[in-house]
Every structure is written in structure tokens, then in C-alpha cells.
Automatic annotation (TrEMBL):
Keywords: Glycoprotein, Membrane, Signal, Transmembrane, Transmembrane helix. This is SLAM family member 5-like. The gene is LOC116224085. It is found in: Membrane. The chain crosses the membrane at residues 198-223.
Length: 238
């Protein structure tokens, strides 16, 4: 009896390597079809152990839709195809189908993803010889880099190290998942060039202005002194 239970268990669970994967986007739709079947008399779709949709003319001429699939699922009576719309992350999982009361070999793994968005490149270091770029993106599973100066340039991961000699080039971060893709491009020099240290410059300017100011003040005093002397001489002559 124990051996029989194990046999039933393996028959009921699909092998992961043989299950086709269907990728879909949140709020999108997906259509699943029974494998190798052109027409059906009755059909039942399940998500795990729960019924999704059913058509059996022996009991009813109408298609039955169950649970939260109501209002967003259609079932083709002739082909057995099922279409589910308004997908959410809760729809991730494995679907199965029974055609004419027989469980077919068609298992379907549905994976729902949110679209990639908000791709941003920033600087992530303080090294004076190298510049490390950081790419961030919401809902991305893969990050790849490309460069304007080489078609063969390719790097993966969130970080990219750029030499200071390559600051004249542009770099693009390609963020993606199975259902969407988004890119953003920056010029390395706009991010990697060290900011100007205005302290010494401002100090130098202020020093020059101070010298000029002191010279101007001295000139005024000298002019005033000479003017006073001339006035004194004029008074003596009188």
C-alpha cells in the first residue's frame, strides 16, 4: 500500500524540467491551449487543485468560471483554450487541464512580472583613478552594460568600472526581465569628473580683490595727501 501511494504521488506532480513556462506582465493576459488536441467534448482547467474553468455538455451547455477568475477568464468550448486577463502576481503557479475526463500531459507554469521602470545610473565610489557606475532599476532581473565606443563591449551586473581615460564615452544600462526592458544612457564625464574644489579658487580671488582693494585705498590716501599738501602751499602763497 505504501508503494502505491508513492506511485500516485509521482503521477500527480509534474516534473519541473518538462513544464513549459509562460511569462506575462501584470495586468496583461495569457492564453493556454491543451497540447496536441484540436477539439474537445469536455474540459477542466485547474490552478493547483482548484478549478479555474470547466465545460461539460453532459451537465451544462454553459462554461463555468470559478473563484477570482470570474470576469477575467474565457474558455473556448471547441478547442479547450483558456484566456486569463488582468493578471496579478497571485496568478503565479502551475495550471493543468483535463480533456474528456483525462488528465493530459499538458502542465503549464505561469510566471507574472511587473514591468521594469525607473532605471538610474549614479556614481558609487570616491577613487581618483577609476570611476564606478551603479545602475538601479525597479523590477529588473538582469542588468547589462553597453558602451558608445565599442559594439563588442559587454558587461553584466549592477556595477561598471570606468577608467578616467574613458570618460569621453557614453555608457548604457539595459535593465530587463522576461516581459519588459528599459534603458538609460549617461556620459561618463558628466558623472565621473571630480567636482571643482572652489575653496582655493575663491580664496585666490578674494586675495586678489583684497590686494586690489588695498592698492586702491592706498591710492586714494596718496591722492588725498597730495591734495592737502597743495592746499597748504596755496594758503602760504596767499
Amino acid at each position: 500500500m505504501k508503494q502505491q501511494v508513492w506511485i500516485l504521488f509521482f503521477l500527480a506532480v509534474p516534473l519541473c524540467s518538462s513544464v513549459p513556462v509562460y511569462n506575462a506582465e501584470v495586468n496583461g493576459d495569457v492564453t493556454l491551449s491543451p497540447v496536441g488536441i484540436s477539439s474537445v467534448r469536455s474540459v477542466v482547467w485547474k490552478f493547483g487543485n482548484n478549478k479555474v474553468a470547466e465545460f461539460d455538455p453532459s451537465f451544462s451547455k454553459e462554461v463555468k468560471i470559478f473563484g477570482n477568475y470570474q470576469g477575467r477568464t474565457t474558455l473556448d468550448k471547441e478547442t479547450g483554450k483558456i484566456t486569463i486577463s488582468k493578471l496579478s502576481l497571485k496568478d503565479n503557479g502551475t495550471f493543468s487541464v483535463e480533456v474528456d475526463s483525462v488528465l493530459t500531459s499538458g502542465w503549464y507554469r505561469l510566471e507574472v512580472f511587473e514591468a521594469v521602470k525607473t532605471v538610474e545610473i549614479t556614481r558609487d565610489d570616491t577613487d581618483k583613478k577609476l570611476c564606478k557606475l551603479l545602475c538601479k532599476a525597479e523590477n529588473a532581473l538582469n542588468l547589462e552594460w553597453s558602451a558608445s565606443h565599442s559594439e563588442n563591449f559587454n558587461s553584466t551586473g549592477s556595477h561598471l568600472t570606468v577608467r578616467k581615460s574613458d570618460l569621453s564615452h557614453s555608457y548604457t544600462c539595459n535593465a530587463s526581465n522576461p516581459v519588459s526592458r528599459m534603458t538609460t544612457t549617461v556620459k561618463a564625464k558628466d558623472i565621473c569628473q571630480d567636482p571643482i574644489d572652489w575653496g582655493p579658487i575663491v580664496g585666490g580671488i578674494l586675495g586678489v580683490l583684497a590686494v586690489i582693494g588695498a592698492g586702491a585705498a592706498g591710492g586714494v590716501l596718496l591722492y588725498q595727501s597730495r591734495a592737502d599738501a597743495q592746499n597748504d602751499e596755496s594758503k602760504k602763497d596767499c
